[in-house]
Write a structure and sequence with these properties.
This protein is an alpha+beta fold and 792 residues long. The protein has 8 helices and 43 strands.
Length: 792
Amino acid sequence: MHWTSKGSALLLAGALLALPGPLTAPPATAAGAPGPARTVAEPAEGPDPLDFAVVVDQSASLAEKDLARETEAAALLSQGEISDRSRAAVIGFGSSEKPGQSPVNEVCPPTVADAAGRERLSACVQQLGRRDAARMGPGTDFPAAIRQAVTRLTEGRPATTKAPAVPKVVFLLTDGKLDVADSPEYGTDRDTRQSNGARRLTEELARARAAGVQIWPLGFGSEIDRSALTAMAEGGYRGACSDIPDSVPRMRVVGTSAEIDKALQETFAAARCARIAQGTVGKPPADLTVTIPPIATDGSLTIAKHDPKVRVTYYDPAGRKVPVRGEFDGSTFEVSGQDGPVEALRVKDPLPGRWRVHIEAPEGHRDREVAVRAIWQGRLRSDVTLDPASPRAGEKVTVQVRMQTRRGVVITDPRQLAGLTAAAEVAGAGFEPFAFRLADDGQAPDRKAGDVRFTGTFTLPAGATGDLELVTRMAAPGITSDRRPVHAQRGPDVPVLTAGLVVDRVTVHPGGTVRGTLDVTNNDSAPHTLRLALQDQTPGAELTVAPTPVTAPAGKSTSIPFTVTLAAGTALGELGGRVAVVDTGDGDAVLDTAFLDVLVVAPPTWWDRWWKAVTGGAVALLVLAALAGIRIAARRRRRDLTGVTLELRDDGRPLHSLTIRRGQSEGGTFTFTVDEPYGEPPMLRGVRGTAASTAHVLRRTGSGELLLRPRGGGQVPVRAGEPAGLGDHELVVRGARTPSPRTRDLPWSRRPRAPRRTGPGTGTGPGTGAVPGAASGTTGATDGSDTYDVNF
């Protein structure tokens, strides 16, 4: 046999035996199935418990390294279990061939897998690594191993009328080859012993079947007895966790170690109707990822570290580090095995999406690969409506079921319920219980295929006399419903009141309203007071219905509008729940119900409502501002005197000239004086401030006309190039109308410069248009007024 492959299988077994599932309950007694009378208890919130045993073939050929892998497998089992109500046992077996030997080695007795129990399991499985040949023989005693497992699984947890029996499963890892030829208890010679061993194995399998214990064999190695494995699978209890054929116990065989991982996962999933999401693998330091689907309500992230020195940090799909224990954002967390070779994060109501696991390890502890996987269960809550809610005997009743998670997420994607089977059972006084099928296939009575609304019909038997109870059953790999009973009453043969509710299927905002109509016919001679009520609301939703009491007038049909109002803080998404109308005069008997098929979306923002008007107004304002700016700029350009040159003359002879610079003609006006220093030729000087009131003024109008107002005189028009009178002198105006910007006009070029003196050799004087000796730089004012540079 290939014992290395076998050891690998043992390593993975514990990881796969980690999730309790909704297996069909075994018989209440060895004699047969329970009768029709039963009591249905309110289901627990957490995962369904499971009693299971991992039974491992520990023949003498098992290598020491395989024993180490077996220990890690048991650690995975104890750390990965997500139900704190389950019980787990680990049993090794071989044979008893001489005094002092035992065919079984019960390293972990049945232990409740709560927080403390997982620690006990983690410690006791370490005994698997200490094999003692003096206490266990090298053979393969299947009868003793199965007997030990069945005995432990059937003790200490009797079935009661308050809770269904807990499923029991044995996972058997072996080559499937019985070997008791050297065990004296089976006879006096080898052939007799083998024959008696086979007969006793048949008896032990019959005992397992009577006790409701399933057997799931997994065979590997080079000499597998396939017929023996098949006989063990078919000899135990044949119950299943769902109607899916693969969930019935069967044997599996793998040929190489590369196939063991996949085979063990498939075996576990089939036995438990569980879902396992494989994550990534890497050596520390690294980030590993695994995805949890939206339908998961309970799960466990199992980290096969191998080395206790590896440290793990967990991050949810939103990228937030989650606590190792306690509550966070609607989920409950509990980490175990941090100081062992296997670590697990148990999560209740996990956030769906891709989880990230960061692993670190010190130098010298980074050579082994670390793997992450998610083991999860979807425990769904059913939302059931009956139409009519109070059926008459012989009347056809339509049943519709919707599912949602504990987080209140309504399941709308049919792919999340792939492989699901649905049925319902009706019980009541006056008739035998019966079951009927529920489907989402679009065939009548189902309205639309794939809308995740499972529909079925039944006819209430004529003998029905009173209360009715309906229980739905939905099962798929990894999915189970809460099995809550729905109670109703048989209606009178001639209905006094008939009512129909219609609720609009709309999209609303938080704080909005949903309209509906109640149509009621009162065949009684007296009016009836009815009441509208809300049922099975999505957790956290705050809804109100109005009007609440309504009156159905006697002997007539009435249509009554109503509204359902959402609170301002209602969460976005699909809104669950129902509207019901009850007859207050008949013990609040339900007359009709209707689903709230409402999608809540975020309200439009101020910008969503007015962005077109705001954008249009802004564009219009920008256009108007641009036009106004263009007009102002054009007007300023027309009035600007920059670049205009003033020339002072006397009888046609140039005395001095001054060019107006940028910034000197504010508002199209330039003020200047004629200075006549003693003994020097007269010269032009621009002024502003207090001296401007006694100066000459040159102004350009918006139309471009030049006007000159001599000091103390009236305003006269001036034509470019033509002389105008200016006291004892003449003034000629020259220059461009709108000078183009040049470097000398830029702000950084407007620095005061040192005055340039005129005189012999400077090129100034009468022949150059300037008065000899006149300054062409900065001129000083004698009256405290500002002065300008005239030439550069």
